[in-house]
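Kindly review this record before class:
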Amino acid sequence: MDEGHIGVDESGKGDFFGPLVIAACYVGPEHLAELEGVKDSKKLTDATSHRLAAKIKAICPHSIIAIGPAKYNELYAKFKNLNTLLAWGHARAIENVLELQPAKLVISDQFAAGGTAVKKALYEKGRAIEFRSMVRAEADIAVAAASILARSEFVRRLEKLGGEYQMELPKGATNVIPTGKRFVAQYGDDALPNIAKMHFKTSATVLGR
């Protein structure tokens, strides 16, 4: 890597509970020595993600966009497509980093129509850069750094949300139904969009529909 570039990644996309978090991070040659241990957040424990996220935030220009469940449901209703919503979030995070640090290249993990959709959602400053959408992009240091920032923020917000309702909210989408049913029994159907992504089929099961 001769010159710096921006990596972008998200966390919470496949989790029924909690926010969607998108992070963009600029990594230049001057940052590499201090980013030891930075790799795809899926391979790290939550504690390690939090520790590395603090280090990345102190060193690298970055932007973290967290969309809480209520706002997420509102945006999903407007965009009617998760990839369009993701592209919009990726574009905003990239633009925010470009305000802090000029760059010529952005690398993102590949999601359906990702590159084209993100490029369309970028404003003037972002359209001048090369956008590279790759499979297993987390092998790239800037994408790995962005994945750690996104994961750490997702976990922190999920725990905070659970604390607000005095209920531990599990990660993922398969083991969430008992918690969802317990939540609805305690707080009512109308409160579910405050903690969950309602377009998941899981929501119908939780609500008994």
